[in-house]
């Protein structure tokens, strides 16, 4: 028989006041009035239908008394992993079910996959050579020697957080579209739980999902892409009995690329009232950007934010910029490296694409700002003396050490808050620079090249008409859209 999904549920020992019968999963105290689970009432349990006994009788594995839903789910997944070892072999499956049933009856540890293989004997050599999805994902990722560190981290996150928990127990050649559908349905159920809990009037319910993030449609597509890549490698392996890449046959809702939305006066007013951010990608108006830069001018790293706001390098490109790549006399910088963030660790990396390796032309004001910053940094170097760290970076701490991308984002957020501005990400400052350039009438091909985009179509589709009112002033240079008086180093 095919391995059943099983179920995880919550129950209690309360009885009906009239009949005296156990309420089990029907007890109204199990949930709060807002629909969230009541952590102070009931316990979690699981059940799953096992392969029939040798006599043909049906049987279930069931265990109650878990403190959390996650603990019950872990035990259920453990059972499914054990059953997967014998999938396709009826007699071996009966033996595995016997082991599971005995462990539950004696309240001992459930058998692991290695123990199961040892106990059911050697009649399944071929099956034992077929890895589970979890085993294959681990082997596949370990063999990807040329992956960029950031890509490896992304793949590992998809495997650890989604693919292994939901699919890891399935034998590779038994993986079907249905398994993937159930995984994405479970992810969406978690999304619904987070959204409902966030909207709850109960502080404890809201606290229960603090720090939890919903999984976006685009992330679901990336999860599928990771699995598809891993399964494609498995299909090409002659020693693995996998003929079809099922990840290519699962349909997901479309993931439209989020476009920048301007913080108009109406949107700002609504945000002040409700705290709701209208869209995933927000950008400031020219006036708001000016206000930010006027406040940032009091910070020693003003030049960094000025560069991003005017010319739009990515955060990692700006943080990783080296003086060897800056030609102030020519009014240009060469983007050849970037700092990528791996968790909280960082690494230097080349841009991902050929388009990312580019030359950016600087306006006169930005050249003045960078010259003033270079002078200040040289003064800091003299003051630091032997304690100076020679990183070669354009933007550094006072001792010469390079900046951490996450730290820069935090500084950006604090300055924006001090300026009384609605929130955007540091990447939103790059979006703003792109939109300003297009609104100023700069040719889309020039903007696309300076941003490091692969195609002009992407640039035009993403940014054009973000500032329709400013676009009328097409004769204005981009820098003139920001009426800045500051051309010093700041700080």
Automatic annotation (TrEMBL):
GO terms (BP aspect): DNA integration; DNA recombination
Molecular function as annotated in GO: DNA binding
Domain Tyr recombinase positions: 279-476
Entry keywords, A to Z: DNA recombination, DNA-binding
Pfam families, A to Z: Phage_integrase
InterPro entries referenced in this protein's UniProt entry, alphabetically: CB, DNA_brk_join_enz, Integrase-like_cat_sf, Integrase_catalytic, Integrase_recombinase_N, Tyrosine_recombinase_XerCD
Chain ranges of the Core-binding (CB) domain: 131-235
UniProt protein name: Site-specific tyrosine recombinase XerC
N-terminal signal peptide: none
UniProt cross-references to PANTHER family, sorted A to Z: INTA PROTEIN, PHAGE INTEGRASE-RELATED
């Amino acid at each position: 028989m095919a391995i059943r999904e099983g179920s995880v549920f919550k129950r209690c020992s309360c009885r009906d006041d009239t009949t005296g019968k156990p309420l089990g999963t029907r007890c109204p105290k199990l949930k709060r009035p807002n629909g969230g689970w009541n952590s102070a009432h009931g316990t979690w349990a699981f059940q799953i239908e096992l392969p029939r006994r040798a006599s043909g009788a049906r049987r279930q594995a069931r265990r109650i008394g878990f403190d959390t839903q996650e603990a019950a789910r872990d035990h259920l997944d453990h059972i499914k992993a054990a059953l997967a070892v014998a999938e396709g072999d009826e007699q071996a499956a009966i033996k595995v079910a016997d082991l599971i049933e005995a462990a539950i009856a004696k309240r001992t540890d459930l058998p692991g996959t290695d123990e199961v293989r040892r106990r059911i004997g050697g009649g399944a050599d071929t099956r034992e050579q077929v890895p589970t999805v979890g085993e294959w994902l681990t082997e596949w990722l370990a063999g990807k020697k040329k992956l960029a560190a950031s890509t490896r981290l992304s793949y590992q996150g998809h495997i650890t957080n989604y693919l292994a928990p939901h699919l890891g127990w399935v034998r590779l050649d038994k993986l079907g579209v249905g398994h993937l559908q159930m995984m994405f349905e479970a992810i969406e159920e978690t999304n619904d739980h987070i959204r409902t809990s966030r909207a709850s009037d109960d502080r404890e319910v809201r606290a229960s999902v603090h720090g939890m993030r919903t999984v976006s449609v685009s992330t679901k597509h990336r999860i599928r892409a990771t699995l598809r890549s891993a399964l494609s490698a498995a299909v090409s392996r002659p020693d693995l009995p996998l003929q079809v890449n099922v990840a290519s046959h699962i349909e997901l809702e479309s993931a439209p690329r989020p476009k920048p939305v301007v913080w108009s006066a109406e949107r700002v007013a609504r945000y002040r009232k409700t705290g709701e951010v209208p869209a995933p990608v927000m950008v400031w108006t020219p006036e708001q950007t000016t206000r930010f830069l006027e406040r940032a001018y009091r910070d020693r790293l003003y030049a960094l934010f000025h560069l991003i706001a005017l010319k739009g390098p990515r955060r990692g490109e700006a943080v990783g910029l080296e003086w060897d790549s800056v030609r102030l006399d020519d009014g240009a910088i060469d983007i050849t490296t970037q700092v990528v963030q791996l968790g909280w660790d960082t690494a230097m990396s080349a841009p991902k694409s050929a388009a990312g390796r580019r030359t950016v032309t600087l306006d006169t004001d930005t050249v003045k700002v960078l010259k003033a910053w270079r002078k200040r940094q040289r003064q800091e170097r003299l003051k630091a003396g032997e304690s100076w760290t020679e990183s070669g970076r354009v933007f550094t701490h006072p001792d010469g050490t390079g900046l951490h991308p996450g730290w820069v984002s935090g500084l950006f957020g604090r300055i924006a808050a001090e300026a009384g501005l609605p929130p955007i990400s540091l990447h939103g400052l790059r979006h703003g620079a792109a939109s300003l350039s297009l609104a100023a009438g700069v040719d889309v091909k020039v903007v696309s090249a300076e941003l490091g985009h692969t195609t002009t179509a992407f640039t035009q589709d993403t940014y054009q008409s973000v500032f329709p009112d400013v676009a009328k002033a097409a004769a204005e240079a981009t820098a003139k859209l920001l009426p800045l008086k500051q051309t010093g180093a700041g700080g």
